[in-house]
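Final report, Chapter 2: Outcomes

The project's central promise was a pipeline that accepts a single protein chain and returns its three-dimensional structure in a standardized token representation, suitable for archiving and comparison. That pipeline is now operational. To close this chapter, we reproduce one record exactly as it appears in the project archive, with the input sequence first and the structure output second.
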Amino acid sequence: MTQTPEPDRNGEKSKAELRHALANSQQEKLALQNVLARAAEQIDQLIESDCHDMEKGKAAKAAHRLRKISEA
């Protein structure tokens, strides 16, 4: 008699675990993007304070980089 193979329960469990890990990673990415966007906003606010022009330029570049990364 030929037996039909049973479904691989470990394989299904692994797929579910991988989906869960992927969802967690995506949420972490979103959280980090939000942190970067807030940091960029804070830098922009600091630029408005009394800073030297050279420092304002550096800060503006940093804010731009953070914003670019947060949108990736």
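Archive annotation: The radius of gyration is 23 Å.
This record, like all others produced under the grant, will remain available to the consortium after the project formally closes.
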